TrEMBL record:
<dbReference type="InterPro" id="IPR018336">
    <property type="entry name" value="RNase_PH_CS"/>
</dbReference>
<keyword id="KW-0819">tRNA processing</keyword>
<dbReference type="InterPro" id="IPR020568">
    <property type="entry name" value="Ribosomal_Su5_D2-typ_SF"/>
</dbReference>
<keyword id="KW-0548">Nucleotidyltransferase</keyword>
<dbReference type="Pfam" id="PF01138">
    <property type="entry name" value="RNase_PH"/>
</dbReference>
<keyword id="KW-0694">RNA-binding</keyword>
<dbReference type="InterPro" id="IPR002381">
    <property type="entry name" value="RNase_PH_bac-type"/>
</dbReference>
<keyword id="KW-0820">tRNA-binding</keyword>
<feature type="binding site">
    <location>
        <position position="86"/>
    </location>
    <ligand>
        <name>phosphate</name>
    </ligand>
</feature>
<dbReference type="GO" id="GO:0000049">
    <property type="term" value="F:tRNA binding"/>
</dbReference>
<feature type="domain" description="Exoribonuclease phosphorolytic">
    <location>
        <begin position="10"/>
        <end position="140"/>
    </location>
</feature>
<keyword id="KW-0808">Transferase</keyword>
<protein>
    <recommendedName>
        <fullName>Ribonuclease PH</fullName>
        <ecNumber>2.7.7.56</ecNumber>
    </recommendedName>
</protein>
<feature type="domain" description="Exoribonuclease phosphorolytic">
    <location>
        <begin position="157"/>
        <end position="223"/>
    </location>
</feature>
<dbReference type="InterPro" id="IPR050080">
    <property type="entry name" value="RNase_PH"/>
</dbReference>
<dbReference type="GO" id="GO:0009022">
    <property type="term" value="F:tRNA nucleotidyltransferase activity"/>
</dbReference>
<keyword id="KW-0698">rRNA processing</keyword>
Length: 238
């Protein structure tokens, strides 16, 4: 049995609450167990210089952890004067994941900026951020459609993410911190609603892992993301 008493194929309790920020065009407070991430989506009628005049939009993301998101206080990266390599890697992953399911031509010459702030971390912050970011982005684009700014929906598909790993020689879904820090192997899967792969990050931590174990992890990720897709749709009333 896992430390959380979950079965190998069981997600942590997941919630997706929209409209938590009254000022942002879209927002979502996402919780995977004790991991909580506040995601806001802001729309700007401007583009990076390299995209101007090309008749298309852009989606990008920023990610950060609040000082007491973890067991001990971490220094704000702004105070340190630079972002860590981990932060840069995660926010690029979030941006790539969202752009994979957006028609940039239909978005028009505007950009959606996604801010992911980790309030509390207990493993899987990047996967929770991606899952909640899609909801926040969809909320923002729904707002633009309701206002008549967009004529067609730029969203081509859903995207969600979940972690999987080999813990005590057993492939398991949605690792919390205790499992993640003791896993023999861990991975993050970013999948679309139609079953396409956006990104897979997989690492042997204490040993290598077999093709059979990877296939089991992939299967767990597919079933976990199917649950998350249903939760995303329910959060948006779809």
């Amino acid at each position: 049995m896992r430390p959380s008493d979950r079965t190998p194929e069981q997600l942590r309790p997941v919630t997706l609450e929209i409209g938590v920020n009254r000022y942002a065009e879209g927002s979502c407070l996402v919780s995977f167990g004790h991991t909580k991430v506040l995601v806001t989506a802001s729309v700007e009628e401007s583009l990076p210089p390299w995209l101007r005049g090309k008749g298309q939009g852009w989606v990008t993301a920023e990610y950060g952890m609040l000082p007491r998101a973890t067991h001990t206080r971490g220094r704000r990266e702004a105070a340190a004067g630079k972002q860590s390599g981990r932060t840069q890697e995660i926010q690029r992953l979030i941006g790539r994941s969202l752009r994979a399911v957006v028609d940039m031509k239909a978005l028009g010459e505007r950009q959606v900026l996604i801010d992911c702030d980790v309030i509390q971390a207990d493993g899987g912050t990047r996967t929770a951020a991606i899952t909640g970011a899609w909801v926040a982005m969809a909320s923002a684009l729904n707002y633009l459609k309701d206002e008549g700014v967009l004529k067609t929906d730029p969203i081509l598909d859903q995207v969600a993410a979940v972690s999987c790993g080999v813990f005590m020689d057993t492939p398991v879904l949605d690792l919390d911190y205790e499992e993640d820090s003791n896993a023999e192997a861990d991975s993050n899967f970013v999948l679309t609603g139609s079953g396409d792969i956006v990104e897979i990050q997989a690492t042997g931590e204490k040993r290598g892992f077999s093709r059979a174990e990877f296939d089991r992890l992939f299967g767990l990720a597919e079933s976990g993301c199917a649950e998350l897709f249903a939760m995303q749709r329910a959060a948006l009333g779809r």
